[in-house]
Amino acid sequence: MDEITYVGLDAHAETTAVAVAEPRSPAPRFIGTVGAKFPELKKALSRLGTASSLRIVYEAGPGGFAMVRQLREAGYACEVVAPSKMPRRPGDRVKTDRRDALALAGLARATQLTFVTVPDERDEAMRDLSRARVDAVRARLKARQQLKALLLRHDRRYTGKSSWTAAHERYLSGISFTHPAQEIAFVEYRRAIGEAQARVELLTQALSQQLEHWRMRPLVQALMTLRGVDEVSAISLVAELGEMRRFAHPRQLMAYLGLVPSEYSSGQKRALGAITKTGNTHARRLLIEAAWNYLYRYGVNQTGMRKRVGNLLARGGDRLLGPANESEGAHDDDGTEGDSSQGRCTGVGQATRQCEPGVPSDGVQPG
Fold first, then answer.
1. 229-257 pLDDT, tens per residue?
2. Among 33, 90, 221, 280, which residue is least crowded by beta carbons within 10 Å?
3. For residues 347 and 324, is the Cβ–Cβ distance under 8 A?
C-alpha cells in the first residue's frame, strides 16, 4: 500500500502554489508555483506520486468547485477547506502564497482542517440562478435610489403612500424638466429602472420553470407551507443549503447559518452576545426576513367566515349538507334522527357546534 502524501494548493486566478507534506518528512516542503490551467497542475502532481497516494486540499474561494471536480474526475482524492475554520497563530502577521500552501499541507497531515460540502452540479446551477436574481434585485434598488436622488435634488417630492406603485408611476409620467440635459438624465434613469424590473421578472420566471425539473422540488414545496416563505425564498434557501441531511441536529444548521449567540465566558462568568453571523449570508438573510412574519399573530376573520358559511347554507342547505337532509327522519353521523325542517344540525353543523332549533350554526336566519 502506498504511503499517503498530503498536497496543499493555494489557488488563485492566474497561479497555483503547491506544497507537500510527505510521510517521512518532519516539515512540509514547497514545490513551486504553476499556472491556473488544470493540465499544468496535473503535470506537477504526477511528479509527486500516483493519484491513489495523494490527498489534495485547497481553500474555498472565488475559483469555486471546478478544481475539485476536475481532480476527482482524474482519480485524485481532493477536499475543499473552509477558510474561516483554518487554525491560525495569533502572532503570525506574514501571509504569502508559499506559506499558505505549506500550512495547508501540514494541517492536512495533522487532520486539523474542516472541509466544506461540494454541492451537486445541478444544485449549484440553481444557486447561481438564484444569486443572479438577487443581483438583479439589488441593481433595481440601486437604479431606483438614483432616480429618487435626482428628484430630491430638484425638490420633486412624492406625497403618496408607497413608491413604485401604479400611482407612483403616474406621478413620474407627469414630471418634466425645463433643461434638456436634466430631462435626458431623468428619462435614462426611468429606462434603467424598467430594464432592471424586466430582468427581475425574467429571472423569477426562470426559477419557477427550473423548479419543475429539480430534484429538490419536494423539499421546496414543503418549505412553502411555512409563513413568510414563498417560492423564490424556498428555492433560494434550498439552493444555498443543499442536502439538509448532512446536519445531524438543528443546532448544527443554526451554527452553520451564524444564528447562534456569540459567547465570551471565563471562569464562573458566562457572557452571551449577538449572533455570530458566520457561514452562509444568503441563507441567513432569507430566514431572518421570513421570521419577521412570526412577530404578528396569524388569524382568520371568524365573523366574516361565519356569515359566508351561513349564506351558503341558506341558499343551498340541502345540496351542501348531502343526502342526510334529503328525507325527513334521515340519520345523522352519530346515528340519531335529524330533521332539517326543524333546524337540527347534521354533518357539518354538528362538527362545529350544537345549533338551536330552526337556526343554522352561524346564528343567521335563512332568507
1. 999 999 999 999 988 888 999 999 999 99
2. 90
3. yes
